[in-house]
Design brief:
Elements (H helix, E strand, L loop, with lengths): L2 E3 L5 E2 L2 E5 L1 H9 L7 E5 L4 E9 L3 E10 L8 E7 L5 H12 L3 E6 L9 H22 L6 E2 L3 E2 H5 L7 E5 L8 H6 L6 E6 L7 H9 L3 E3 L8 H16 L4
Parallel strand pairs: 1-4, 7-8, 7-12, 8-9, 8-10, 11-12, 11-13
Antiparallel strand pairs: 2-3, 3-6, 4-5, 5-6
Helix pairs in contact: 2-3, 2-7
């Protein structure tokens, strides 16, 4: 059954309203009509609805019932991603949303070469949110991940005391492996994962991260691309601590 995300303010009493591009998709692409059923989510609750009326720029839905959903993981992963080049961030957001990541925080690091101008930033965030929403639909998730504005590496480190565990894969770490860290923790609910951009993290950034009690981990003898590292580490953490196992 088709699923659409609806802002909470567009759900009132027994009715909900879909506007914008989704209206065109429902009417002209899917060719749904009065009485057809669709699932909507306000980002936290899902509803079974039926199409009550179709207007030119709006679809009116009747709320039939709330749905019980168990597609969200009990592990809250926040991905602090060093801004990569090209469209790699789009791939990272798409795949990590499917895995179950709850929050994306783009970070500006010493070796970040991407320069997002303020005039383009809002468009980038809008694009990333759209990709995340489509990935939620595809994977059946109820909640939309939060996608934050880019911040500096040090600003990001100041947030890690909100988490039970902070992991930073680092190519020069030869002793502590990711699996060893995950095997040694209990009652973990919130995990921060830091992934460097194409050039990795600088030594000064790593020294600063250690002062904030981040754990450096090895991913093995091979050097992974930033997008591969992000998807792999999030998958491993979700497997070991979450609901992918």
């Amino acid at each position: 059954m088709r699923k659409f995300f609806v802002d909470k303010e567009k759900i009132k009493e027994n009715f909900a309203y879909i506007e914008g591009k989704d209206t065109h998709h429902i009417i002209n692409v899917l060719r749904l009509k009065k009485g057809d059923k669709i699932v909507i989510s306000d980002g936290s609750t899902e509803y079974l609805t039926s199409i009550y009326d179709v207007e030119k720029n709006r679809v009116i839905l009747f709320l039939e019932s709330k749905l019980q959903s168990n597609t969200e993981s009990s592990i809250e992963i926040a991905l602090f991603q060093g801004l990569p080049k090209s469209d790699k961030m789009e791939l990272i957001i798409q795949k990590c949303t499917e895995i179950g990541v709850k929050k994306f925080i783009p970070i500006i690091t010493r070796y970040s070469v991407v320069n997002i101008k303020n005039s383009n930033l809002n468009k980038k965030i809008e694009r990333w949110n759209k990709i995340s929403q489509e990935a939620c639909k595809q994977s059946g998730r109820t909640s939309l991940p939060e996608i934050c504005m880019p911040i500096s590496f040090e600003e990001a480190l100041k947030q890690i005391d909100e988490f039970d565990l902070c992991i930073i894969p680092y190519e020069k770490e030869k002793t502590l492996k990711l699996k060893e860290v995950l095997d040694g923790v209990k009652n973990i609910k919130k995990v921060a994962i830091f992934i460097g951009p194409e050039g990795g993290f600088s030594e000064k950034e790593i020294d600063l991260a250690l002062r904030y009690s981040a754990k450096l981990v090895s991913l093995g003898p091979r050097i992974l691309r930033t997008e591969t590292a992000a998807i792999s580490v999030c998958s491993i953490v979700m497997y070991e601590l979450g609901d992918m196992g």
